[in-house]
Design brief:
Length: 280
């Protein structure tokens, strides 16, 4: 995301639709993990990076050591959803500047682990561009977001499962149709509606079979428990890489989330990262 695209996914959340809860990896608290402390104008918080998402971990550590995040803003804040930072252009941006497009010139390959690491409250995840220009779902090289989210009922999550599976089937159909673009164009030019409809039916059947073969999306018991209690943003699971979590200072995240914002979701009063420090 470059979370401009995340706004589009908010519409999906709307269809279905505290303090810090227990962390995703609470059962592994004895494991040594990489910690990063953020000092901001709204207070401090600390995140733990997951070793399993090593590409994102290593890139984040590199940027922290280079003091890349120092002086950047939380330039996008959406209540009951997330707070986003990491745009290098925000360091010297004017009060009216449009932010969210700054990058470092590279992306990080997706490392989805939605069964273990998902978008529960407090999750640290990578922003990215939308699927239209980024079908591999590669992450931004620098922009990240922290989930605040909201709670859901069991019925809402069940409905969301269906929506996500329909969305996946639609993406498969579009990819298959792209492969048949020449044939579709040929039939349209010939005005052969009968064959066009038969091809459409064939593509829909193939998309259904492929989705069935890949397996339907289904929330795990851990996801259901988290999203119905501490909350989060379940509609993002499997589409954006979660690579860490807030382990201290969720009250600071809540304070940032409560910021008054403009129409572009930028806080009216700048919330700046003063310093990000790797805790050895």
């Amino acid at each position: 995301m470059r979370l401009n695209e995340l706004c589009l996914t908010l519409a999906l959340a709307a269809l279905t639709a505290c303090g810090a809860g227990s962390t995703q990896s609470s059962k592994d608290m004895n494991e040594k993990r990489t910690l990063v402390k953020f000092e901001t104008t709204a207070g401090n918080f600390t995140v733990a990076l997951y070793d399993e998402t090593s590409k994102h971990r290593d890139n984040f550590i590199k940027l922290v050591k280079e003091e890349f995040y120092d002086s950047t803003l939380f330039h996008r804040v959406i209540r009951n959803f997330m707070i986003q930072a990491g745009d290098p252009e925000s360091k010297t941006a004017s009060d009216t500047a449009s932010l969210g497009n700054g990058e470092v010139g590279y992306t990080v390959s997706a490392e989805f682990m939605p069964v273990k690491y998902f978008h529960r409250r407090g999750a640290l995840a990578a922003a990215r561009q939308g699927d239209e220009v980024n079908p591999a779902k590669a992450s931004s090289g620098c922009q990240f977001y922290i989930v605040t989210g909201r709670t859901f009922t069991q019925d809402q999550l069940l409905n969301l499962e269906g929506q996500l599976n329909e969305q996946r089937k639609g993406a498969i159909f579009n990819e298959l149709a792209h492969r048949e673009a020449k044939e579709i164009d040929k039939l349209r030019r010939a005005g052969d509606q009968a064959r066009l409809l038969r091809l459409q039916d064939s593509l829909e059947s193939r998309a259904h079979r492929q989705l069935k073969k890949e397996g339907y999306f289904k929330f795990t018991p851990a996801q259901l428990q988290a999203y119905t209690t501490v909350g989060g943003a379940p509609h993002l699971d499997g589409s954006y890489t979660v690579f860490g979590e807030v382990v201290k200072g969720m009250d600071t995240i809540e304070k940032i989330e409560s910021s008054r914002t403009n129409k572009a979701d930028r806080p009216l009063t700048d919330v700046r990262i003063l310093k990000a420090t790797l805790i050895e």
